[in-house]
Design brief:
Structural class: alpha/beta
Order of helices and strands: EEEHEEHHEHEHHEHEHEHEHHHHH
Shape: globular
Strand content: 15-25%
Number of domains: 2
Mean pLDDT: 94
Low-confidence stretches: none
Distance between the termini: 44 Å
CATH superfamily of the largest domain: Aldolase class I
Largest sheet: 8 strands, parallel, barrel
CATH topology of the largest domain: TIM Barrel
Length: about 350
């Protein structure tokens, strides 16, 4: 295989993806607007923020969960990620998704078995399932049966709970036996949370242990990291999380094998695109409020970023935020001309 071809097609069950790059599901980041932008920048797959399988049962009209579940079948492959600890909840949630006129067009169902946050693991969900593999197997089996072959079922997990219980290889073999179509491994333990160094040797061991497609996740920040992960571990695809926050053009850089980022005008246009789509989905007031959190990521390292973020905290109207971004663009251009 020619390792110069970082970006290549990937099949997951019956699903054919245009490439092997994926945007990780991230609470507070991977909203529908951001997923659309990442697809346009070159992500072959994106996945929703995690959604409670049980919560879907208490939201029959899906009003509370819609903002997290929303997909756009015309904007590339989008998966829906579910979390929970009861196999029956997953079956019911998947039936509900398949029956829905919009959600039924999702590309795959992903099961979260890797989230490290206390609120999730205290319920026996997320990475806690790596400590209860028999329960994890029942969940995977129920989910695969509920999907009826209509959608691939995938799993995202971690290396293990802590350094003393790194069980990703055995866990992956078990999931393969349960019929899942692909596995993503974040090469950190739950104890590491999001710190420390990802252990890519775990990725290589998982890939050697199963014949399923495997995505590697952890410490990928540039196209050179993608190249190194593919060469060193043999994984089929790379899933990118925090490095893509406020940085959707990272996918374009990987395609081009180029580290050049966007200029101020393009960066502003992408932020405004994100804002406009959020306003359509959530309403103007909520969209402006949430964009304040995204601005720090979008503008990091640019002239005037700190001033804009501080000013944006007082903004409540979309027009005012657009004006602030216009001022920031002028400041950036002047900085470039004077450098």
């Amino acid at each position: 295989m020619n390792r110069n071809l970082l970006v290549r097609p990937l099949g997951i069950g019956t699903l054919s993806l245009p490439n092997n790059l994926a945007l990780a599901p991230m609470a507070g980041t991977s909203d529908l607007a951001f997923r659309r932008i990442c697809h346009r920048m070159g992500a072959g797959l994106t996945v929703t923020e995690l959604v409670s399988a049980r919560g879907m049962m208490h939201d029959p009209a899906m009003r509370r969960n819609w903002r997290y579940l929303a997909i756009d079948a015309d904007a590339g492959a989008m998966g829906i990620q579910l979390f929970g600890a009861d196999p029956d909840d997953f079956a019911a949630a998947i039936w509900k998704i398949l029956d829905h006129p919009i959600l039924g067009h999702c590309s795959l169902i992903d099961i979260n078995m890797g989230c490290p946050v206390r609120k999730v693991v205290s319920e026996g969900a997320g990475c806690a399932l790596m400590q209860t593999p028999q329960l994890a197997a029942r969940i995977a089996q129920k989910a695969v049966a509920a999907a009826q072959g209509l959608k691939p079922v995938t799993v995202k997990c971690r290396s293990g709970w802590d350094d003393a219980s790194v069980n990703a290889v055995l866990f992956a073999r078990m999931l393969a036996d349960c019929g899942v179509s692909a596995i993503t491994v974040h090469a950190r333990t739950r104890a590491q949370m999001y710190g420390g160094k990802a252990d890519w040797s775990v990725l290589a061991a998982v890939k050697a242990a199963v014949s399923l497609p495997v995505y590697g996740n952890g410490d990928v920040t540039c196209w050179q990291d993608v190249d190194r992960m593919l060469r060193e571990t043999g994984v089929d695809g790379v899933m990118i999380g925090r490095a893509a926050q406020g940085n959707p053009w990272l996918f374009r850089q990987i395609h081009r094998q180029d580290g050049t980022g966007p200029g101020p005008e393009e960066r502003r246009d992408i932020i405004l695109e994100h804002l406009a789509q959020l306003a359509e989905l959530l309403g103007e007031a909520t969209a402006v409020r949430e964009m304040r959190c995204h601005l720090g990521q979008y503008l990091r390292g640019t002239p005037g970023a700190a001033r804009l973020r501080a000013a944006a905290m007082a903004v409540t109207r979309r027009e005012d935020l657009e004006n602030l971004l216009g001022e920031w663009q002028i400041r950036c251009q002047e900085s470039c001309e004077n450098s």
